[in-house]
Amino acid sequence: MNIAPFVFQRPRGKVHVPTVTLAHGGGGKAMKDLIDDVFLAAFDNPLLAPLDDQARLDLGALARHGDRLAFSTDSFVVDPIIFPGGDIGKLAVCGTVNDLAVGGAKPLYLSCAVIVEEGVSVDSLRQIARSMATAARAAGVEIVTGDTKVVNKAACDKMFITTAGIGAIRADVNLGAHCTRPGDFVLVSGFLGDHGAAILSARGDLSLEAPIASDCASLHDVVAALLTAAPGIRFIRDPTRGGVATVLNEIAEAAQVSIEIDEGSTPIRDEVRAFCEILGLDPLYLANEGKLVAIVPPEQAQHALEAMQAHPLGQAARLIGRVIAGEPGRVTMRTVFGGSRIVDMLVGEQLPRIC
Amino acid sequence: MKYIDEFNDPDLAKRLLDDIHATVTQPWALMEVCGGQTHSIIRHGIDQLIPEQIEMIHGPGCPVCVTPLELIDKALEIASRPDVIFCSFGDMLRVPGSGRDLFRVKSQGGDVRVVYSPLDALKLARENPDKEVVFFGIGFETTMPSTALTVLQAEREGIGNFSVFCNHITIVPTIKAILDSPDLHLDGFLGPGHVSMVIGTAPYEFIAHFYNKPLVVAGFEPLDVLQSIWMVLKQIKEGRCEVENQYARIVPEGGNTRALRAVARVYELREFFEWRGLGSIDHSGMKMRAEYVRFDAELKFALPNVKIADPKSCQCGEVLKGVIRPWQCKVFGTACTPERPLGALMVSSEGACAAYYQYGGLKRRRDEVLPVEAGTA
Q1: Most buried among A322, B225, B294, B305, by the most CB within 10 A?
Q2: Helix or strand run (H / E) with residue B164
Q3: Which of B309, B344, B364 is the last residue in one of the domains?
Q4: ipTM of the complex, rounded to two decimals
Q5: What is the CATH superfamily name and number for domain A177-342?
């Protein structure tokens, strides 16, 4: 005779107050209600549901995706938390998904730790959690473990989110900046600087409102298409903070090569360019959250370009430059006039200039 | 948006470059007065495209660079006070005083805000009546009218918790000081476009008439700069010394009289003003008139005057006057970098040294001799 195992179905809690208070981080019923109502309701999946201290993943299933694990973490502290083109939740998912994807991994599982400032509205927290869930579904990943802390007013700015992610890398994929060789082509998957310009504009303290949306998006599909079209691809990186200029400098340094990019081929939206002109910023240093830089051997560059352009997130992909023997670590830009200038690492953050 | 492209048209640039090459017959040294032009020249690689005989000397027109250490220290002192919201243009934040910069003050709890206009600071004053909101007023005639108009607005509204820490400077006496400098050889000027938008072109006439140097008021886009270089060269070649206006789409000959009226109402000339790198220049700084003392942070906070000398190894003054080139300075790229600037010109992205360091300076060797020097030696 079979006895069905006893499964206790805990009723889901509900938050009945409008704002998050320190009680929601206290470990008691209020916290359970918040987790149930906000996070579990949004992320709902069998690995998360037991709310144990850890998610337990099937190693055999992971191994079917590849022979190495990719493991990455990132914290998100953006101001404002909701901006044209996304919010801190979408950013937190796409950011870690992209960090995994550009290493050639298939992103699989995420963790999510949220630090909330007391006084934040429960609705805005719900909105962010739902946004994370939507982004996770779109990226084909599950949020399987998490943590919530509530801190005193002004101890953090509304909310900080940390995500970590696990992905698996296929045996035949080996990417690395050091693989870069003179003669390789430099490709980008689309318009540069959108996210950085959108955030600066959305902050509103520069009295400039530009119609620019963040490019925040998960790039796993674009990377998969690239790996298929150009299996010899050397290296992929998502140019977030510090922008494309910083990534190219890191590549040139790691591979001890020079990189020359062409100003006329570098895709920058007119509105981002105008925004930068007014503030005295350089779009090459602005953050991107849905773009990648790829280093591709010359014979596969065209395939890579076409594969990206065939994807909705890569329609504006361009070939922007080449790797040359030159001085190790040097990145230069050929200007539209045929002059040339150094594209160096930024010292600190870019500052709007006086006039 | 198209506007940017039109002033970046490579074909037009090539035609201008051909004209420039055809005009040059001997080494000539030109000074672009404004830091924005320096930035444009280096960023677009114009210095490498013009004939080698043309030497561009990068002038003093970067207000961030030339603000002296003791004033930065005073600003830092004001910004550190718990009852103050200190507002500044972005690029002043990284400018070091004798010990720290505004970023450090901010990290130590000072309320430092980046604003794009002094009116934003006035708004903060309205919103924070229990705080004194101080705007760091720096810049030439380009930014002077906006701070003057903001003071007048504050007066109209009767706002008592707003003041300007006025370190505005004026360009004409400075150009004169440079022209009077005995160790300087210059053949012509690109005049500052934005300053001229306010003051017009008449204030430069003395340069043409008394110093016999041509001046072309120039814009900032690459084509503006190229066309202005060509216009100056043409004057030199034809033996003319005139004030011409390349930037006529922005700069009216008579300037902006309303802006000038506001400036004259709020500010008056200081007896002398100490420039970082250049030393003291008579009648080159502005202060608030007696009627507006209640908006004058200098008086509100009554900070003691402490004279702080520029670091000894710093050769900014010689670079500003074109006596040496940025990369020839003893400390360029070694003790003095944009990360840890010793001298004024490494401070802002519009400073000549920072521009070279970031965009092209490493190409030059410290011992490199330019055709201009070889020709005049």
Answers
A1: B225
A2: strand B162-168
A3: B309
A4: 0.79
A5: PurM-like C-terminal domain (3.90.650.10)
